[in-house]
Amino acid sequence: MKTRIHIRREILKLVLAFGILCYIVPGGPGIAEDDNGSDWRKPFHPDQHTVVLYHFDEGKGNEARDACGDAALTLRAHKAALWGSRPGFGTTARFARRADDADLRVGPANNDKLHLKTCTKAWTVEAWIRYTGPGGEEKGGRTYAVICSTDDEGFGLPEGARGGFSFTLNQGRGGVGKLKDGLLPAARFIASSHSTENFGTSDFLFPGRWPNKKKGQHIADHQWHHVAWQFRYKDQLNTFFLDGKLVARITLFDSGSPGIIVNNVENIVTPFIVGGWIHSQDPPFYIKSGNFKGEIDELRISKIIRYPVTQKLAIIHQKLPKAGLKVPYSIELATDVAEGQVVWELSAGKLPVGFSLDRKHGVIHGKPSETVTDRTVTIGATDAAGRTDKHTFSLTVVRGRLVTESLPPAFSGSPYHIALKTAHMARPLRWELVSGTLPRGIALNIETGQLEGTPTPKGQTRLAIQVTDANGLSDRCDLVLRVLPPELRVIKADKNTVVLYDWQGPNGKLIPDVMGDKQLTLTWTNMGGDMRMSWPGREGRFPYDNMGHGEHGWGIRGKGNPKLDLKTCKDEWTVEAWVRRAGPIQGHGDKVDRTHQPFDYGHICGSYDNSNRGVWELYLSDHDSPDGSMAPGVHFLGAEPDQALMNLHPWKRPTGIMGNPTKAGIRDTEWHHVAWQYRYTEDLHQLFLDGALIWQMKSPDGRKLVNNRQHDAQFSVSTRLTGYSRYGGAFNFLGFGNFFGQIGEIRISNTRRY
Known about the structure:
By secondary structure, the protein is mainly beta. It contains two helices and 49 strands. Helix content is 3%, strand content 35%.
């Protein structure tokens, strides 16, 4: 072993001194063909494409070092390392799938190399593995054996956000069975929880979802196998290899994919881990889920594709970005397995006016002078050996536009700053206010398109703003600027506060009541990580459900708490919250299907759930809305059927609307303040939006509010539960009533505040 380590160190010195020249296939971005770098049958050595390489040659102690010499990438055993050996390869990292996660190898968190951020064009993650478990050891009989990962499925995140990748052995989505049923390499990539258009791969790269899985190729024994996962940004191509054979190729541009890989994760507290996940100890989860059993060796990450994804010349099926009318455009095409110089030609179709194809370099470029939508052109490529390929691309040229659709609220007396945004417009831009009057203290910067200043009056102002680009093309939008009362800006605790959740603090898993009642502490309804994100213009972070699927809600541990059932509010109360809806279809989808449902109703907070238990619920709904806008509403139940007060809501009970009905609903995806007030002596219910009274009603249906209900439901935030839920209980996945968006402070007071 010592001789092998010495030889490798000498090789490393030569690499650092002279570099290793690798032949890169012409036209094939990031594919290395040299045997030294890509022969999976031999122990690896560092080359200029290697990001990190773990030989696990140490053989003792609790550390494993990067063979490239980066000390920051050193792995340390969670408690005590186990070691194995393999003829011809030396020592190996061994894992026993222990309940205390003791033998896992743990690296740094938020390291760009280990988060694949230095792999800007492509990557290969690979290892030699010997799985010795029986398979089917996870919940439901699944196999989920983690080789290496920067995401942990939310199992170990008392703080920090989920995000990153996992490289595993798997039987696929819902796949169950033992080792004899076969295991395959699999991967997952989770984008930033702040994403609004892309959420990564979900389980799309699990074998059960592979569209063209190779039959008869899998692991069904306890022998050594080489596994690899390759990814290329240009065409979002993922390829999986087992013992040097391609077993699957999946492109995330194909229909059915939940999203593409965009490596935008940051501030991920979970470290890079080899051999499994460290499970949360708050509360303790000694469940071993995902932990490897067996041995891992020669773990390498490279910033190229190491292994050929095709055996013949092929044009890479990249998705061409949209072009802007009269805006310079250039996009380079590429091929796999080209020999020598490639010559390109337009085989069919017509490029938009202003575009041309560089036949030598395969570049579509120019300044388009016409708009087109999904125009197809077929382009051919011929290499020096005379081999050819053709592919049909789709091109779209759009007119530049102003993409800002709404404005966040301003607060009287507080600085305000918002930049209006455009797409596909040529700079410099010129901005102007074409109708309406800006609130006193706010100005429009005609060069930057920024609205800035400190407003003084309260109220709403309708504006029309126009932008003109360097080519004389213009666009405009109609906006509403709300200037809200200063007391709404930050909801704080005072002598009349019963409970207040402000969502701040270092722990994203346990959210205490600001008033100090530990019985009211909120925690996850399901494991999921810290889903809090910032609120522009405000300090702090607030929970965001980026899908609306019900996984990331909150609940207290107890049931029927009198404070949260409003029973300590003897005379009157105010229940209020800040909310921001995310969009019309959950999960940011553009069509309705199983996982993308219309966001037409969202539970903000309360104990009422989908089992019709509990007492009350504050919600947003567009049911029976005249214009599709969402308005706040309330349900409140007594112990007897004739004590139920349902649908206290402007659209359901329009006779209670106060003032202009158009001001009773939310039509945008900005932050809004909602409040429900009640007084026993008057039996009067009132609803407020952004500090203004929008609806009120005395004794709805002739029924006086009676707060006498006993129940065993949890108080919950953002999701209507289906049963008792805590750390993965009966959370409301894809069920009715989940809030889609972000929720800010929630306060219950024993007085009417508005």
